[in-house]
Write a structure and sequence with these properties.
heterodimer, A: mainly beta, about 0% helix, about 55% strand, B: mainly beta, 5-stranded antiparallel sheet, globular
Chain lengths: ~120, ~110
């Protein structure tokens, strides 16, 4: 139980384009979803927290207009990187918590974004 | 500011030995401390959670201790195997299901 999926697993895009990443909780209702970013050999850094049906709460230094987060249902959250630039290249990981999986966070497999 | 330190970036041990990883934190009073395993290019996988009022937790070959006075957690893998080779992350939270603060991780290599 407590499985979280992400799609796509990797994406390459041109600078200036937008990329959408999906995060789904497959077997539980995720009242809260989190988006993290991880650079090589670095720890996971929280970008934002989203509760179903509410606006996301962004961490200091994370541009909300650049990283659009939507949590429209209890099983789906999306992160859209708008006008992507090479410095946005990173490993993006979502996690989910809630319902039968409220004791901790369960992570997706991550999405590797490369912006050329 | 809140800070989490994991004792070393890399730890190399021989198969069958016990691996001990350390997580220290400052400027924080977590209610929960968690350990995750992360393989290259993959998301973290939850291993164990220990609460502030618990001293020790075990799960199969894994054992976690939590000393809120020392602000330290120790993570042990007994009878280690090459398949245990991965990066292990320590993470803190104020309450269950809330945002986690992660350490950088310790990469464990178990040689046969």
């Amino acid at each position: 139980g407590a499985v979280v999926s992400q799609h796509p697993s990797w994406v390459i895009c041109k600078s200036g384009t937008s990329v959408k990443i999906e995060c789904r909780s497959l077997d539980f209702q995720a009242t809260t979803m989190f988006w993290y970013r991880q650079f090589p050999k670095q720890s996971l850094m929280l970008m934002a927290t989203s509760n179903e049906g509410s606006k996301a709460t962004y961490e200091q230094g994370v541009e909300k207009d650049k990283f659009l987060i939507n949590h429209a249902s209890l099983t789906l959250s999306t992160l859209t990187v708008t006008s992507a630039h090479p410095e946005d290249s990173s490993f993006y990981i979502c996690s989910a918590s809630g319902g039968t999986a409220s004791d901790t966070q369960y992570f997706g497999p991550g999405t590797r974004l490369t912006v050329l | 500011s809140q800070k989490i330190e994991q004792n070393s970036e890399a730890l190399n041990i021989q198969e069958g030995k016990t691996a001990t990883l350390t997580c220290n934190y400052t400027n924080y009073s977590p209610a929960y401390l968690q350990w995750y395993r992360q393989d290259p290019g993959r998301g973290p996988v939850f291993l164990l959670l220990i609460r502030e009022n618990e001293k020790e937790k075990r799960k199969e070959r894994l054992k976690v201790t939590f000393d809120t006075t020392l602000k330290q957690s120790l993570f042990h893998i007994t009878a280690s195997q090459p398949a245990d080779s991965a990066t292990y992350l320590c993470a803190l939270a104020n309450q269950a299901g809330t945002a986690l603060i992660f350490g950088k991780g310790t990469t464990l290599s178990v040689s046969s």
